[in-house]
Amino acid sequence: MYSEALITALMNADSVAVLTGAGVSAESGVKTFRDPDGLWMKFKPEELANFDAFMRNPELVWEWYNHRKEIAASVKPNPGHYAIAEMESLFKEFTLITQNVDDLHRRAGTSNPIELHGNITRSFCIDCNKFYDKVEVSEQQKIPKCDCGGMIRPDVVWFGEMLPMNAIQTATAAAQDADVFFSIGTSGEVYPAAQLPGIARQYGAYVVEVNPGKTSISFQMNECLLGPSGVVLPPIIEELKRRKLSA
Ligand code: BJW
Ligand code: ZN
Fold it and tell me: Are the C-beta atoms of 122 and 133 separated by less than 8 Å?
């Protein structure tokens, strides 16, 4: 259950920022990475989520991403995504920063998510950097090729790769500027994304975590709301709308 302090902070907030991770999509049926049934329990990140692995075995990497693309396209946003999308209209400034690549925030109605780790629906050529919205992977064409002949890869950020400069800069500025900062559905294990709640706190934000369990960044929070985001977030938004209407 949320506190009165959180509702007061939200009522007084001009600027709110939200960082999300895989947990936000769990209730839609997208697997997280580090939970007991998560992706990294079954698949090895060193074989799938770095550039060397792609160069060693692009077919395997494409098979995995194609499978995840199909899952992402077949599931629907959940009440957590919709509650976050509603927040956009409740504050003067609102920034959604996501580590997720599944596109579900946009599909729920968030207009301009900052995608720190890319987006699985896009791809680009490793030789000429041309972007592609649709690529075909099939039995005949196991690795999509660019017009220039180069290999196309998913537009996601693998370990050891820089995050898009604009995305991390905008996210850092939003964390510094936030009056309230939410960290939702992330284990806080992966950097630099995991630094953002701490930056927000250092710059004076009221920082709140939403997660069924404690994480390695829980100690940085003003408040930890223990539970699934699709259950925890909607009542907060409803209460906030009710208070704003009667204010
Ligand atoms: C629920 C729920 C429900 C369940 N409701 N919650 C500083 C210190 C140490 C290391 C580094 C550092 N700086 C950089 C590094 C190296 C590395 C890193 O962080 N390593 C750590 C693992 C130690 N970082 C990088 O390499 C980054 N690049 C970089 O820093 O470049 C500069 C540089 C380069 C070279 C050298 C040094 C610096 C890039 C990171 C890229 C991460 N990529 C991935 C894959 C993306 C593509 C894909 O999807 O395939 O991103 S890895 C994976 O982890 C994915 C996620 O976005 C990311 C974060 O995971 P997330 O979202 O937190 O998921 P989980 O599973 O960990 O947690 C889910 C949570 O949800 C859990 O807590 C559950 O309890 C909860 N949950 N159900 C709410 N219903
Ligand atoms: Zn090309």
Answer: yes
